[in-house]
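Lab notebook page, bench 4
Experiment: in silico fold of construct C2
Operator: M.H.
Input chain length: 188 residues
Purpose: comparison with the prior construct
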Amino acid sequence: MLDAAVLCFWAQGYDATSLKDLVARTGLTASSLYNAFGDKRALYQKALDHYVEAGISDRIRRCEALPPLGAIEAFFDEILVRSLEDRDHKGCMLVNAALDVAPHDAEFRTAVAAVLSRIEAFFLRCIEAGQADGTIARSQAAATLAQHLLGILMGVRVLARVRPERPLLEGIVAPALALLCRGGDGAA
């Protein structure tokens, strides 16, 4: 039922999703939805949390098991695959929430910012570990590189909604990854 609500909000966005849409997708009655979640906003929060846990948090956990540079590469490889296989051009539900809901709702702004901070922290842990073991260049501060990767990620996910073109998306990611590589920028 929560998966169905995720798909409904993800495909249509918060504002465009009606109670009728949610009832049709979940198979629950309106009163059952209200009894279970309180209101549409609360259901959206649960759906977004579920999306983050099943997608983003799971991806971070899987990638953290890899060596630092490999973890970052695997993270972006998966993002590119997801972006290019998204036939409905739904994009990332978290990014959609950042653009559609967060500007008008302080609670969602805080929630979205917290998840983005978790992603940035993942990048930072990988970069610091890679700089410590010599597999990632030290030419830039780890925090700066982590922020750069977060920006690249957001750009890819937004562009993929309107231009899901492999050369474009790979062309955005490749220079960012090259910046991490020892010797890719002339520094060790």
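Observations: The radius of gyration is 18 Å. The chain has nine helices and no strands.
Next step: discuss at group meeting.
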